[in-house]
Write a structure and sequence with these properties.
This protein folds into two domains: 78 residues, no CATH class; 57 residues, no CATH class. 53% of the residues lie in helices and 6% in strands. The protein contains seven helices and three strands. It has a three-stranded antiparallel sheet with strand order 1-2-3. Strand 2 and strand 3 form a beta hairpin. Helix 2 runs antiparallel to helix 3, helix 3 packs across helix 4 and helix 5 crosses helix 7.
Length: 158
């Protein structure tokens, strides 16, 4: 059985349309001008966009994948159907986080979201930096409970 990214490679579907809530394609520069930011701010956005793209290239190299930066107004990174914010992307690259370690945090965080959606009081999200900087094991919700939340969430049980 393959673990980590090896088992997920090739599962991304290319060519899907991305856009605003109405399905219209949106670019970061257009987004900024639409909300009335100046030309100087658009220039700043273009520099930010270039930095995001550089981080994406580095992460693709680190994880040997073909993830892409979504120039969608929120500037999210998409790799094997996982979505990272710019903060998470930067943290992973700057700290050399391997895919399997990242996936442990991502899975935990997703299970916390399921718990929150179900109204579970113990469910609390954890930022990626807190996780990798030594989030105490005793503070984590037990795996069996998190898995139950995930099952209940997908089965529509509250």
């Amino acid at each position: 059985m393959e673990s980590g990214l090896q088992g997920l490679r090739g599962t991304r579907q290319r060519g899907g349309k991305r856009g605003d809530r109405m399905g219209r394609p949106v670019r970061c520069g257009e987004f900024l001008s639409d909300i009335g930011l100046s030309e100087d701010m658009t220039s700043l956005q273009l520099m930010y966009s270039a930095a995001c793209k550089a981080y994406v290239e580095k992460l693709n190299e680190m994880w040997e994948t073909d993830g892409e930066w979504m120039d969608d107004g929120y500037c999210t990174f998409d790799v094997v159907d996982l979505f990272l914010s710019n903060w998470e992307l930067r943290y992973v690259v700057d700290n050399g986080i391997d895919f399997d370690s990242f996936l442990k945090w991502y899975d935990y965080d997703m299970q916390m979201l399921y718990g929150i959606a179900l109204g579970k009081k113990k469910a609390r999200r954890i930022n990626i930096d807190h996780w990798f900087e030594g989030f105490p094991e005793e503070a984590k919700v037990p795996k069996a409970e998190r898995e139950r939340w995930e099952r209940d969430y997908f089965n529509g049980i509250k």
